[in-house]
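so ive been stuck on this for like two days lol. basically i have the seq below and the ligand is pyridoxal-5'-phosphate, smiles is in there too. i just want the complex predicted, nothing fancy, no docking runs or whatever. if the output looks off dont worry ill sanity check it later, just need somthing to start from for the group meeting slides
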Amino acid sequence: MSESSELAVRAAKLDAGDGLAGVRSRFVLDDVVYLDGNSLGALPAAVPGRVEDVVRRQWGELRIRSWDESGWWTAPERIGDLVAPLVGAAAGQIVVGDSTSVNVFKALVGAVRLARLGKPVASAASAASTASVASGRDEIVVDATTFPTDGYMAESAARLTGCTLRPVTPAEVPGVLGERTAAVLLNHVDYRSGRLHDLPGLTAAVHAAGAVAVWDLCHSAGALPVGLDEHGVDLAVGCTYKYLNGGPGSPAYLYVRADLQDRFDSPLPGWNSHAEPFGMRSDYEPATGALRGRVGTPDILSMLALEAALEVWDGVSIEAVRAKSLALTDFFLECVAAYVPSGRVESVTPVAHGERGSQIALRCDDAGDVMKRLIERGVVGDFRRPDVLRFGFTPLYVGFGDVERAARVLAEVL
Ligand SMILES: *Cc1c(COP(=O)(O)O)cnc(C)c1O
């Protein structure tokens, strides 16, 4: 048997034994191999009908009554509670709304303010030092390799809070933490390389320094277990249009750990985060709970599209998704090694499972041109400047046959 037919047979066997294979029918898909769900997740089949109902009936017929009767007003917290189990959070700590960029800003400024209050921390050693240095905390540490918007927001947050920004690689973070560190903004999975960072270890290091940890979950939520509560993360943000399939520009979310909520001081205290929003009071009094992270009127159309999109998770465990994600990415690397002439591409994604998200990034000199030709042949990934072919694997709808085909077409194109 030739190498290609042997791998195709293996793919068919893996698909036959895949407990998540049936979930694909919950999406609207065609015969394109879609490996760009880490940029824009595919359309869940329940969404068009829900959006139609929200527009025609809830808005068109009930009009303003829908703020109560259709649950519009409470949607940010209600949908936050649907995201919560996917990132290992108990209910009442996540609010959906705004973009990731805006939530990075809220979280980071909020983190600096928390650090200066001298938040209680888990470790006794740092608790002792916190009180004396709390007000001297004047540094924000940020991942220098981050998705640009996070870096821009961190720069502005630093200026606003009178902090110095220290951009370092995640590996360098433990070495720069100290009594001056106020907050640390990190990515769980690097958007370019697909590297998974050590969230438990880095969070513990941040806490040991008496600082506040903010995690960006854009490339991990919906792809692998995050364990926010378990690992004591302080604040987290993430988007919902990647592995959570919420649709273009669907609202992001903000997690504020329950015991920090009453001290979380949002830099964007809009009327929706007021204790008594319809009191129309001139003085600001923050609400209690996760809804303190709200700002203005929620974007109901995209928010309720997201709510329908989250139904694809019914009966799906994030652990099963993670197991399949690793199997898919392993199989892709194996197929690429078998089909693509050696030296033509080089994976920049770590081989170790503990360091890999749900994507494979291949470096290749003419990556822009190669991706264009892949897309013409029905294999959709994306190109990240200057030289990276990025393939995202969404276990809810990508199968092993897709993986084999993608690698085969890549070899043909190359
Ligand atoms: C996708 C992504 C964003 C997107 O931010 P928006 O405000 O939704 O445009 C931000 N940060 C990271 C790390 C991302 O991967």
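The CA atoms of residues 46 and 216 lie 28 Å apart. The chain has 13 helices and 15 strands.
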